[in-house]
Specification:
single chain; alpha+beta; 7-stranded mixed β-sheet; 3-stranded antiparallel β-sheet; DUF5947 family protein
Length: 223
């Protein structure tokens, strides 16, 4: 059959085939999928770290559990779900300045590939890596032995310095994905040089939530 434009249009059995293809086409699935097995996952889901690419992957619970064995040397590592706080955490005089972090907030984690601790702090462009002086961080760990419980690559130590100064600093151990979530939230709210009122409110809300989830670990205690 020829249409008014002179182009041929399908008819008969050909038209029936096209209709059947359209009817059998799978519907688009809304929401996220596991990046390993492709099953649908909820908005709240687990993560693993791809050690080769240093990438977070969204996964279903069964895939997560495959890589949750402590100490396993695998290509992928499950991000733990524990939250700890350290009520006895302290920063001696000059400790924060020696770390050369330009703002009052940063997270630290051990990078196995680089065999060193790395530091990131939030800003208008997202997470910025700081050239962390090794001796300065070693001094912080010497003063706070409980921090050594953090698992390399998948857990981070989040340190916040209040306006009153380093003497009132607080520290939490949390999953690495939570740190990147915080950086993303602050980036969306960031205004001006210091983030502005909205970013500070977002930060206060985040610390309130992790404080409720955290188990307090006194100096010398075990998780």
């Amino acid at each position: 059959m020829t249409g008014s434009s002179g182009r041929r249009t399908p008819s008969g059995s050909a038209l029936g085939v096209l209709r059947r293809i359209a009817a059998e086409r799978p519907a688009q699935v809304a929401g996220e999928r596991c990046e390993m097995c492709a099953v649908p996952i909820a908005d709240e889901h687990s993560h693993v770290v791809n050690m080769a690419g240093r990438q977070l992957m969204c996964v279903c619970r069964p895939c997560y559990l495959l890589f949750a064995e402590p100490g396993a040397e695998l290509k992928y590592r499950a991000v733990p779900e524990r939250y700890l706080s350290f009520p006895d955490f302290s920063l001696g005089p000059g400790r924060w300045d020696a770390l050369e972090i330009p703002v009052g907030l940063a997270f630290f984690f051990r990078n196995s590939d680089q065999d060193r601790t790395v530091a990131f702090y939030p800003g208008p462009a997202g997470a910025t890596e700081s050239e962390l002086p090794i001796d300065a961080w070693a001094a912080v760990l010497d003063d706070n032995a409980a921090l050594a419980t953090a698992v390399p690559d998948v857990e981070a130590l989040l340190i916040r310095i209040p306006q009153s100064g380093p003497a009132g600093a607080e520290c939490h151990l949390l999953p690495i994905d939570a740190c990147y979530e915080l950086v993303g939230r602050l980036r969306r709210r960031w205004r001006g040089f210091d983030g502005g009122q909205d970013a500070r409110a977002e930060l206060d809300d985040f610390f309130t939530r992790i404080e409720r989830r955290s188990v307090a670990i006194p100096e010398g205690g075990a998780s």
